[in-house]
């Protein structure tokens, strides 16, 4: 080790994180200690040296014009409780917080939806046969999606309906999908996939998204200085934009990725930093978009590249992932996850990462500084996501020559194997996980090939073996102990017979803790859920994919409504959502489309609205009255889980199925007493 991360010369020694206090994961702790011993700075240390801005984190710092920033702390509320706070232009705390919140929603919608647009462009290119690197893999899903986009799957020939050519359907699906981003009139076609009562609520409240891009632009316009000054009206647009994400850009991304790369079905793989192999070329893909990583998987497994790696002295090529690119290739190919958001720098600290290939979102710029301390080649690949540091290689990915790009990248990694200059230290920790629970896979597991349905799930919710459903999503946050909230909340939920649907870095956290195996049910679940998991052979936590795949959660909830017996709308279900350690704008967009779809949603780290209590209450109480879903915040993980369970119980009571659950929970002595 001959290079150190450079610190600014402040005269003060920067504080370092206490490894015991900042993570519950042993591999993370060991690599953090190693980084500190080598003088390599990571996010855990930076979090000790920079505290969040108090006013900004309350949402009441306005910097949308050149007269500010105008800061409206809670302490400026009059002693008699009257809130006369205002910025130079007169903007109230509610207006400022609502505008800031809306801009976060817009950022999240833009990120998910631009990802979706990119997939749609590749899809159309493949459908038009402009590239031979991508083909239609899932024709059944293509036909299902075609119907949702009003694309005919049959044609009339001499008065008879005959199947339409699949290539023709694919082209029209690609064109229709792409037009969802910018069509001049109408509304998003996927909105009608929601339960009818929910669609009618959106219609009645005037929040049906027109096209995806327009809703983002609308937010940026109305939150410009001197435009929308009514937090209720701003929130309404947040809803319209967030719905354009969940039921638009994200859902299209998921569907088109499934058609192109394959719809996920359960498969076994592993997770955590221990998946790296000292004697292999280790390639880590990181970010969100699977188009390039799909090619990297193919190239890394090719005979040609494996023999090239052997010539360089490596026993093979180990691919691994970080964040949601990890989730994309693990759910379709079983490529193991090296870790989640907060572990990205630590993969390099192992000294065994020969190349890290990044695309978009959740990528730390400090990766370049950490890579400088080791031999790791850091490769950016997306034209909108470059880095200023000069040790970063940019190999731009283009779907028209995707295979060649992937070959160049993998070759660069293999060539770098012999340049390792630090002692390799790979943690032992890695856990088995079963991932790949698409909506289609859940249907299959619960109903079988011929009778795929969510009926079995509903039946077991009604009879009380399963108390309810929780959707857990999202990131890690350096302001909270890494993975602690994720795992504590989930253990509390499954102990109380709540089945969990998980995505993103929450799923990676669960995987590293061994919660994504059917065997974990016996160890952690209440008796009802344990019995179901054992009978069906599923884990109590179902890994449903990446961030954009939160759209799968919306469709799973819709399937539950359709299967019957649990009300007519998503807000009727014994269902709750959670983002225990959120940090990104995408999480705010996800939270808001969950809430606007009727889901009670709890965030584990405060949302930036607390400085404007009236606006905050609007997001909770008023939203509940309109859509049936509401925002809530609860940092304590056990209290957080209990709030979710209390909501589930309330819904069971409203559905009149609370008594069934009471019977299930009786122990043997109570049963005997009853029978006597
Ligand atoms: S990667 S958005 S840290 S889940 Fe999707 Fe993880 Fe959150 Fe990024």
Short précis:
The chain is α/β, with parallel strands linked by helices and 676 residues long. It folds into 3 domains: 93-261, Up-down Bundle (Substrate Binding Domain Of Dnak, Chain:A, Domain 2); 273-419, Rossmann fold; 431-655, Rossmann fold, CATH 3.40.50.2030. Helix content is 48%, strand content 11%.
Structure write-up:
The longest helix is centred in the N-terminal third of the chain and has 35 residues, at 93-127. The chain is globular. It starts with 18 loop residues before the first helix and ends with a helix. 48% of the residues lie in helices and 11% in strands. The strands form five sheets. A six-stranded parallel β-sheet has the order 8-7-6-9-10-11. Strands 15-14-13-16-17-18 form a six-stranded parallel β-sheet, with helices on both faces. The chain has three domains: 93-261, Substrate Binding Domain Of Dnak, Chain:A, Domain 2 (Up-down Bundle); 273-419, 3-Layer(aba) Sandwich (Rossmann fold), CATH 3.40.50.2030; 431-655, Rossmann fold, CATH 3.40.50.2030. The chain contains 28 helices and 18 strands. By secondary structure, it is α/β, with parallel strands linked by helices. Broken Fe4S4 cluster binds at residues 288, 323-324, 340-341, 362, 474-475, 504-505, 546-547, 584, 586.
Q: Give the number of helices.
A: 28
> What proportion of the residues form beta strands (DSSP E)?
5-15%
Distance between the termini: 75 Å
Question: Which CATH class of the largest domain?
Answer: Alpha Beta
Number of domains: 3
